[in-house]
Amino acid sequence: MSKIEASLRAAIESDPDVAVDIMVQLTSPDEARDQACHGAASLSRGDKTTCMVNNLQQFAEMTQAPVLELLAQNPQAHGDVHSFWINNSVAVKKCKGSLIVALAGVEGVVEIRPEEVLQLLTGSDDKHKQRGAKASTFSMNVLDE
């Protein structure tokens, strides 16, 4: 359970049926990114970018497969699932404690933490004025759209 963030682990220990919005962080895509099209000096910048994106997507697909399979086998234990290839993570809504513990045992999972919600200031069209700014809440479901 060391892969589970401390406050999340404490919540699961006090209530195994707790349902939490979580982020599952898998093995870093750094290696795949760094090896993307290595030695392909003759490629254009656009082709190198395409090659790197393809490598990152393939790496995420491969490393996330066991997590997504476990989630598919337990549809009653979670809500919506969103996969992110750019940083090799999976967002899971309303994930039950028992499934979180099972996910921590999946090879390639580095960390499981509660989903973070960010407060950003938005407001007037004049970028130089802070007056009239209001707080907006963004979570994975907003950023994912």
Q: Would you mind describing this structure in some detail?
A:
- The protein is α+β, with helices and mostly antiparallel strands and 145 residues long.
- It folds into 2 domains: 6-114, no CATH class; 117-145, no CATH class.
- The protein has helices spanning 6-14, 30-35, 45-73, 97-104, 140-143; strands at residues 19-26, 81-84, 89-96, 109-114, 118-122, 134-138.
- The strands form 2 sheets. It has a 4-stranded antiparallel beta sheet with strand order 2-3-1-4. A two-stranded antiparallel ribbon has the order 5-6.
- A hairpin with a 4-residue loop joins strand 2 (81-84) and strand 3.
- The two termini are 32 Å apart.
What key phrases describe this protein's structure?
145 residues, alpha+beta, two-stranded antiparallel sheet, 25% strand, disordered C terminus
Cα-based radius of gyration, to the nearest Å:
19 Å
Order of helices and strands: HEHHEEHEEEH
> What's the β-strand tally?
6
Question: Based on the structure, what is the oligomeric state of the protein chains?
Answer: single chain
